[in-house]
Design a protein that fits this description.
single chain, alpha/beta, Rossmann fold, two-stranded parallel ribbon, 9 helices
Amino acid sequence: MTTWLITGCSTGLGRAFALEALGRGHRVAVTARDASSVQDVVDRHPETALALALDVTDPDQVTAAVAATEERFGGIDVVVNNAGYGYRAAVEEGEDDAVRRLFDTHVFGTVRTTKAVLPGMRERRAGTIVNLSSIGARIMPEGSGYYAAVKAAVEALTASLRKEVAPLGITAVVVEPGGFRTDFAGRSLTQAAEPIADYAETAGRRRKEQDTADGNQPGDPAKAAVALVDVVESGEAPYLLMLGNDAVDAVRSSLDALRADVDAWEHVSRSTDLDEPV
């Protein structure tokens, strides 16, 4: 039995992760901005679940949630940084305040929670940090530049973190889900308020009023949760865990495209070193 702290559990993958971990007998701090939205999960597992209010953009709430989890269950073995939401806009359409909130939630929220649990993990020389990304970080579709950017930042941070904490007995994992049957593309999706007509055929095609993805995603959140908990329990978690056939296909395609670019322009890339002295 281990202790988990999972952010963003009110719906979707976060809720599925919490239910699966609890179902296997783990102790879980089930968090959401409104703790009442996860009380039903706690009611099903009163001995091993703790409902906590947590807005990851609020440093005081992050500190309080970690302290409450440790007080109730002891040290935190696994943190899953799942809290987040979608934002769609052409780069030119992106509103400054909305973009700042997006980065504060996905990037700095992940950093806040990670830094809050690391002292305890370092002391125990054990722990797993799971950071949710997206295949958007790989495929970078039109209209999702800002969302892809926050997830790419999370992936880069996690890669460095993994190297830093590995000697301390701690591991860090990036999870790249594909499309899952949650409300991510529905209620949770935000977008720029003022579209620009010139982007109607690119970013505009992915606006909520044009998108038909909601309710038609191929991924099963319950199966994603089984896969994630299996990987964490294995003790051999990879840097990158893809979830979904579409995620695997997207990553392979992006790697092939990148390799093709590297090969096509290698002669230019290799021409820029200083000449050897005569």
